[in-house]
Design a protein that fits this description.
Elements: H1 14-17, H2 24-37, E1 42-49, E2 55-61, E3 76-81, H3 90-104, H4 109-117, E4 119-123, H5 128-136, H6 189-200, E5 205-215, E6 217-220, H7 232-250, E7 255-258, H8 259-262, H9 270-278, E8 282-291, H10 305-325, H11 330-338
Parallel strand pairs: 3-4, 3-5, 5-8, 6-7
Antiparallel strand pairs: 1-2, 2-4, 6-8
The structure holds N~2~-sulfamoyl-L-arginine and zinc ion (ZN).
Residues 84, 87, 212 line the site of zinc ion (ZN).
Length: 347
Amino acid sequence: MRLQGGGTSSVLNPNEFFNNFRRLSVIYSFMDRLAEMYPRMLSIESIGKTSEGREMRIMRISSPSQGRQVNNSKPIFWIDAGIHAREWAAPPAALFIAYALLSQYSKNNDIAKIMDSFEWHILPVANPDGYEYTHTNDRLWRKTRSRNNFSSCRGADPNRNFGFHWRENGASTNPCSETYAGPKAFSEPETMNMANHMWRHRQRLMAYVALHSYSQLWLTPWGYTSDLPDDYNDLVGKARRAADAVEKVYGTKFKAGSSTRVLYAAAGGSDDWAKGVVGAKYVYTVELRPGQNAMRGFVLSPSEIKPCGLETLAGIVQLAKDIRDSGPVLEGRKKQSTNKRRASAGS
Ligand code: 0X9
Ligand code: ZN
C-alpha cells in the first residue's frame, strides 16, 4: 500500500508525518488536517481531559452512509494506543491505520469492506500527559502524571487502573512503582474518560484493540487470571490469523495467547474491562515491535515507524474481515449487555 503525499513538505503531509515521532500538538494538527482532507469520513471528538488539562481526542472514522445503512448502527471497532507513555511504536501505528482507512477506502477492496462494516473509534494517544513527559523529561516514563497524596512520586499505571478485578493481581499499592494501580479504580481521568466513552457506546462496541509495545504478541483476555474466557478459542484463532497476516508483510513473528498465560497476571487492564464489564467480544492487547529480547525495546528507530504501521495495519485488516465474516454477533450482545451493571466502573 503506497502512501499518497500531499504536495508540500510540511510535517503534516502524511508521507512526511510518519518519518519521525511527533509531539502531541503535531499529532493533533495532523488529525485536524486529515479531517479537512476527508470531511465525510472523519470527525474528531474530545473524550475529556487529562489530569494536567490536555485534551484526549479520538478519530471517528466511517465510510459515508450508503442506501439504507445508517452509520450510527454499525458495530464499533475501537483502537487505542500510547496508554503507556514510553511505548512510542503505538501512537504512530494507530495513526497509520487511521490514515490507511481514509486514504485507501476508494482504492482497496479490503479497506472498503471493513470501512463499510464498522465505525472506527481511534484514540492515538491515550496518555497525553505521560507522552509529553517522555519528550521533555524522561524518555522511559510509563504512567500518567497525576499527583499522589502522601508521596512525591507522580502518576498511576493506567493499565492497572480500570475497574474490573482492580488491584487483585500484578499491581502495586506503592505510588512510586511503575505498576501503581492508583488509589482507587478510575482514579485517573484518562482511564475514566476512556471507560465513559466505551460505556456510552457499549451496545455497539464489537472489537477493542489496545496497542502497546514491545514483545510482538497478540494477547487475549484474561489478564487478571489464568482462567480463559468462554470464547477463548474463537479469540485466539482470530489472533493467530491476524499474527499470520502481520508476518506476511516483513516476516515479523508474533505469538498469540492469553495475557496471563503468555506474559503475567496483571489486573485492572483496559482489555479485561472492555470484555468483562462492557461486554465487547473481540478484545486484544497487541505488543508491537521489537521482539522481547530487544535491548532498548521502547526506543524504536524512526525508520521503523512506517514498517511497523504497515504490518500492524495488515493484522487489523485481517481481524476486522474475520470478525465481519463471523456474522452478526451484535444482536446477541445488545440483549446481554443492556442490563449489566457497571458494578466496578467507579461512578
Ligand atoms: O503490563 C501491561 O500493562 C502490558 N504490557 S506492557 O509491557 N505494554 O506494559 C500487558 C497488558 C496485558 N493485559 C492485561 N494484563 N490485562
Ligand atoms: Zn504497555
